[in-house]
Amino acid sequence: MKNMASVIGDVAAALVTLFKGLVVVAIFAGVAFNNVPGDFAGYGGLSSFISAFLDGGLVGLLTLLVLASWMK
Questions:
Q1: 34 secondary structure, DSSP code
Q2: Residue 35 and residue 27: Cα distance in Å, rounded?
Q3: Do the Cβ atoms of 30 and 40 come closer than 8 Å?
Q4: pTM of this prediction exceeds 0.90
Q5: How confident is the prediction for the chain on average, in pLDDT?
Q6: Which DSSP symbol is given to 33?
Q7: Which of 19, 28, 44, 53 has a CA-to-CA distance to 5 between 20 and 30 Å?
Q8: Which one, of 63, 57, 27, lies nearest residue 45 by Cα?
Q9: What is the per-residue pLDDT across 41-60, written as a single tens digit (0 to 9) for each?
Q10: Residue 42 region by backbone torsions, left for phi larger than 0, else alpha for psi between -120 and 50, else beta
Protein backbone atom coordinates (compact mmCIF):
# COMPACT_ATOMS: atom_id res chain seq x y z
CA MET A 1 0.00 0.00 0.00
CA LYS A 2 2.89 2.34 0.76
CA ASN A 3 4.40 1.63 -2.65
CA MET A 4 1.12 2.47 -4.41
CA ALA A 5 0.88 5.81 -2.59
CA SER A 6 4.44 6.57 -3.67
CA VAL A 7 3.61 5.79 -7.30
CA ILE A 8 0.50 7.98 -7.20
CA GLY A 9 2.50 10.81 -5.67
CA ASP A 10 5.19 10.53 -8.34
CA VAL A 11 2.62 10.53 -11.15
CA ALA A 12 0.85 13.55 -9.67
CA ALA A 13 4.14 15.41 -9.33
CA ALA A 14 5.04 14.65 -12.94
CA LEU A 15 1.66 15.87 -14.19
CA VAL A 16 1.93 19.10 -12.20
CA THR A 17 5.43 19.70 -13.56
CA LEU A 18 4.20 19.10 -17.10
CA PHE A 19 1.26 21.47 -16.62
CA LYS A 20 3.51 24.20 -15.21
CA GLY A 21 5.84 23.83 -18.18
CA LEU A 22 2.96 24.12 -20.64
CA VAL A 23 1.73 27.28 -18.93
CA VAL A 24 5.20 28.83 -19.17
CA VAL A 25 5.44 27.91 -22.86
CA ALA A 26 2.00 29.40 -23.51
CA ILE A 27 2.96 32.65 -21.82
CA PHE A 28 6.22 32.95 -23.77
CA ALA A 29 4.46 32.09 -27.04
CA GLY A 30 1.84 34.76 -26.32
CA VAL A 31 4.52 37.36 -25.74
CA ALA A 32 6.64 36.33 -28.73
CA PHE A 33 3.84 35.92 -31.27
CA ASN A 34 0.97 38.37 -31.42
CA ASN A 35 -1.47 35.94 -33.06
CA VAL A 36 -1.87 33.51 -30.13
CA PRO A 37 -5.52 33.43 -28.97
CA GLY A 38 -6.46 34.05 -25.37
CA ASP A 39 -5.39 36.53 -22.71
CA PHE A 40 -1.70 36.14 -23.54
CA ALA A 41 -1.91 37.54 -27.08
CA GLY A 42 1.16 39.77 -27.07
CA TYR A 43 2.24 42.43 -24.63
CA GLY A 44 -1.28 43.82 -24.35
CA GLY A 45 -2.60 40.52 -23.06
CA LEU A 46 0.28 40.10 -20.65
CA SER A 47 -0.09 43.62 -19.30
CA SER A 48 -3.84 43.17 -18.82
CA PHE A 49 -3.16 39.89 -16.97
CA ILE A 50 -0.72 41.59 -14.60
CA SER A 51 -2.95 44.65 -14.20
CA ALA A 52 -5.74 42.35 -13.02
CA PHE A 53 -3.57 41.60 -9.97
CA LEU A 54 -2.42 45.17 -9.49
CA ASP A 55 -5.92 46.65 -9.76
CA GLY A 56 -7.27 44.11 -7.28
CA GLY A 57 -5.96 45.99 -4.27
CA LEU A 58 -4.92 43.95 -1.25
CA VAL A 59 -6.60 40.77 -2.53
CA GLY A 60 -4.75 41.04 -5.85
CA LEU A 61 -1.46 41.61 -4.07
CA LEU A 62 -1.98 38.59 -1.82
CA THR A 63 -2.93 36.43 -4.81
CA LEU A 64 0.18 37.55 -6.66
CA LEU A 65 2.34 36.74 -3.63
CA VAL A 66 0.80 33.26 -3.35
CA LEU A 67 1.42 32.58 -7.04
CA ALA A 68 4.99 33.84 -6.73
CA SER A 69 5.62 31.61 -3.72
CA TRP A 70 4.54 28.55 -5.75
CA MET A 71 7.25 29.27 -8.31
CA LYS A 72 10.08 28.45 -5.89
A1: T
A2: 13
A3: yes
A4: no
A5: 75
A6: -
A7: 19
A8: 27
A9: 555 666 667 777 778 788 87
A10: left
